[in-house]
Amino acid sequence: MVTEARKLHLIEKVLKIKSESKLAAIENFVNQTIKKHRKSKLSIDDFVGILSKEEAHEMKKVIAESCETIDPDAWK
Length: 76
Known about the structure:
This protein is an all-alpha fold. It has helices spanning about 1-15, 20-35, 55-65.
């Protein structure tokens, strides 16, 4: 129960914060901490922004050129 009391005490302190920058820093810290603990389960949001438009276009081009061609003799 000590942990629950500490959480409530922390929430009370956060509710009293007036500074937007301090609140943003706390929010960022909490979000980063939560992300570190749930890395085992990824979502599509974890991949947004990894590739530039040019890199994505190049990847699509390479896939179209190599993966979508069928060599009928390859199965023999």
